[in-house]
Design a protein that fits this description.
The protein is mostly helical. The protein contains three helices and no strands. It has a domain of about 35 residues.
């Protein structure tokens, strides 16, 4: 349960930064990743989106990424 929460927070946090279009609301974020267009995100949709976002951040493909906040 905690892992899904962390992934969800990371997904929402990176959604407006990593994607070409900026999300203005939670509804916009759901719409970006809602593959079956049912207005909700299920675990499979969250995992797919989180994996895609993580892959963008893991530039050296070592299974981790470092983010220095200034």
């Amino acid at each position: 349960m905690l892992r899904v929460g962390v992934i969800t927070v990371a997904l929402i946090a990176t959604a407006s930064l990593a994607l070409p279009t900026r999300a203005d609301s939670a509804t916009d974020i759901v719409a970006m990743f809602d593959q079956d267009h049912d207005g909700t995100l299920d675990l499979a949709e969250v995992n797919k989106a989180a994996t895609a976002e993580f892959d963008k951040l893991d530039v050296d493909h070592d299974g981790s990424f470092f983010c220095a906040l200034l």
